[in-house]
């Protein structure tokens, strides 16, 4: 029986009574009374309804570098909101309590959220949809992000990138920046450890770059699973084929959720960075506690243009968006 819950976008009604969700590449065929893989869409008597519209579990003011977005308004802060659920089932999920669990949630409408963001724009550049997978919040982002941008706020997504081209194209005009997890450069890894596929993620990244969205990528390096030098070379080369200026974050894995493989050795992180630097201008490492891990260097003269210590950022090496030492352009949006 249909309820007064909001209706989902991007689905078809099948002859057998199932609803075919078209939001992400799973394209779940959902029987009456059942939910899709992401657990946010339910077939209610022949109508696909949303269980998560405006339902949020976290709302905080974060450093922009925490997303991580190192080249998008560096040193700034951004309000961040997240719901619950995910359309992937990564065995190493670092936010499993909200992505795979069912934590308590509060409700906010698009207009109310926009007012809250605008009210805090003296301390924040806008809003990041983050913490869990934002694309399964498609309808809420579609309704709230344009209101925030109209008021001068910036919009960021921190996402797994597993979404179909049509809903992606609908959202991209309202998005300023994205950090996408490119979890491996191996379809078998995606299928076995994430319950997904790699090609849709690559298509999302390429489409966002073509649309002029500021894109940064993150890889959680897991020993024996996605740390093959051959794959790392292929991954970095593919990123460079889109743009050598895409910032690439390589982060150290620690055992989490269902995965108990020992933590990534720090030398493996450094080696992965060396490989990526053969192709890309800006490569960062995380969770290793090294002074240079978060520094931004000029690709031309190797002068440190941005210093980062934790989430404290110093921009004294920049002259606008250029290197203060040699004048070369730095791929940063300020």
Rg over C-alpha atoms, rounded to the nearest angstrom: 20 Å
Distance between the termini: 50 Å
Question: Would you tell me which CATH topology of the largest domain applies?
Answer: TIM Barrel
Shape, per Cα inertia axes: globular
The topology string of helices and strands comes to EEEEEEEEHEHEHEHEHHEHEHEEEEEE
Q: How would you summarize this macromolecular structure in one to three sentences?
A:
The chain is of the alpha/beta class. It is built from eight helices and 20 strands. The chain folds into three domains: 11-49, no CATH class; 55-292, Alpha-Beta Barrel (TIM Barrel); 295-334, no CATH class.
Task: Note down, in words, how this protein is organized.
With 334 residues, the protein is an alpha/beta fold. It has 3 domains: 11-49, no CATH class; 55-292, Aldolase class I (TIM Barrel); 295-334, no CATH class. Helices cover 24% and strands 23% of the residues. It is built from 8 helices and 20 strands. It has helices at 96-99, 110-119, 138-150, 165-171, 187-194, 198-210, 229-242, 266-277; strands at residues 11-13, 19-21, 29-30, 41-43, 48-50, 55-56, 58-63, 77-82, 106-107, 126-129, 154-159, 177-181, 214-221, 248-252, 283-286, 296-297, 304-309, 312-314, 318-319, 322-323. The strands form 6 sheets. The protein has an 8-stranded mixed sheet. It is globular and about 65 Å long. 45% of the residues are buried. The model has no long low-confidence stretch (mean pLDDT 95).
């Amino acid at each position: 029986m249909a309820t007064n819950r909001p209706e989902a976008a991007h689905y078809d009604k099948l002859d057998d009574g199932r609803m075919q969700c078209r939001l992400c590449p799973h394209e779940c065929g959902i029987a009456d009374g059942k939910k899709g893989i992401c657990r946010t869409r339910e077939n209610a008597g022949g109508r696909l309804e949303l269980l998560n519209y405006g339902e949020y579990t976290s709302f905080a003011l974060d450093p922009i570098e925490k997303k991580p977005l190192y080249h998008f308004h560096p040193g700034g802060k951004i309000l961040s909101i997240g719901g619950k659920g995910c359309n992937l089932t990564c065995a190493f999920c670092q936010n499993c309590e909200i992505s795979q669990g069912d934590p308590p949630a509060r409700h906010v409408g698009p207009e109310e959220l926009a007012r809250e963001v605008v009210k805090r724009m003296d301390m924040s550049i806008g809003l990041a949809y983050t913490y869990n997978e934002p694309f399964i919040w498609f309808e809420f982002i579609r309704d709230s992000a344009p209101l925030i941008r109209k008021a001068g706020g910036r919009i960021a997504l921190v996402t797994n990138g597993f979404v179909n081209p049509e809903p992606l194209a609908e959202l991209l005009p309202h998005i300023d920046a994205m950090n996408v997890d490119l979890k491996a450069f191996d379809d078998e890894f995606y299928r076995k450890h994430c319950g997904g596929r790699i090609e849709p993620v690559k298509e999302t990244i390429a489409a966002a770059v073509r649309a002029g969205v500021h894109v940064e990528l993150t890889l959680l390096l897991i020993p024996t699973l996605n740390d093959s030098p051959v794959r790392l070379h292929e991954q970095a080369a593919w990123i460079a084929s889109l743009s050598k200026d895409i910032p690439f974050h390589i982060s150290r894995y620690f055992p989490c959720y269902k995965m108990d493989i020992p933590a990534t050795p720090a030398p493996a992180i450094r080696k992965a960075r060396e490989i990526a630097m053969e192709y890309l201008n800006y490569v960062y490492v995380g969770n290793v506690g090294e002074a240079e891990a978060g520094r931004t260097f000029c690709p031309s003269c190797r002068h440190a243009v941005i210093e980062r210590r934790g989430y404290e950022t110093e921009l004294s090496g920049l002259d606008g968006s250029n290197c203060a030492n040699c004048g070369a352009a730095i791929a940063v949006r300020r």
